[in-house]
Design a protein that fits this description.
The chain is α/β, with parallel strands linked by helices. The chain is 41% helix and 18% strand.
Length: 222
């Protein structure tokens, strides 16, 4: 029972911090997208392909969660956008208080679009609200087509599932239609997009998905 009580207290504290973030994002009219996936699914590569397209519509920034190293933030910073690494020191997910702490500074003010690249994990990040508007799950074709039913938490909550590395489809055993059926079962209202950051296939459609939500956000005034 004590373990349950501690977890409930941790989640309650996170919910309070997330609510504060949500008010902040509403005031600044910032659209926030939380990217969740296994390690190596291609989150950073997808952002590298997307930012040059999306920065025409909005000022973009990225927070990157990892247990160690600042490599991903360095890669994204070369695109000329604010990119800050959040090192968790072993924790398998980001929480709202960590996000709030790393949003300090002028470079993270007046944003139109903020991507949060969560720690590579399909389980822990799912339970933690970061004040985002949308969770997006990434699944690479190299991971296998059984993941949605094996990890239903994230795939049932994600507003979109992005299949990555589709340029490798002919080299791996991955049934795209089976994944479509699983996503449809778990999340009938969710979108499914296919992309290759290497070839660029599908990246425009993914960016259009983001743009549509950015447009709604801007027209609603936050």
């Amino acid at each position: 029972m004590k373990n349950v009580d501690v977890r409930q207290k941790v989640l309650a504290a996170n919910e309070r911090a997330a609510a504060q973030l949500r008010r902040r994002f509403a005031t600044s009219e910032t659209l926030v997208v939380n990217l969740i996936s296994s390690p190596g699914s291609g989150k950073t590569s997808l952002l590298e392909a997307s930012v040059p397209r999306l920065r025409r519509e909005a000022r973009v920034a990225v927070l990157v969660g990892d247990i160690a190293t600042e490599r991903d933030a360095e890669r994204l910073g070369r695109l000329g956008i604010p990119a800050r690494q959040i090192l968790t020191g072993g924790a398998c997910h980001l929480d709202a208080r960590l996000v709030a702490r790393h949003l300090e500074g002028d470079e993270f003010s007046r944003l139109g679009l903020l991507f949060i690249e969560n720690v590579g994990n399909l389980i822990c990040p799912t339970s933690y609200d970061l004040g985002e508007h949308f969770k997006v799950a990434l699944l690479s074709v190299t991971e296998g087509d059984d993941k949605p039913f094996k990890y239903p938490g994230i795939f049932s909550r994600a507003s979109a599932t992005v299949i990555t590395k589709i340029d490798l489809l002919e080299h791996v055993d991955f049934d795209l239609e089976a994944v479509r059926e699983q996503i449809s079962t778990l999340n009938p209202g969710g979108s499914l997009l296919t992309t290759s950051s290497r070839s660029g296939e599908g990246v425009d459609a993914w960016c259009d998905w983001v743009r549509a939500r950015l447009s709604v956000r801007m027209s609603s005034g936050g």
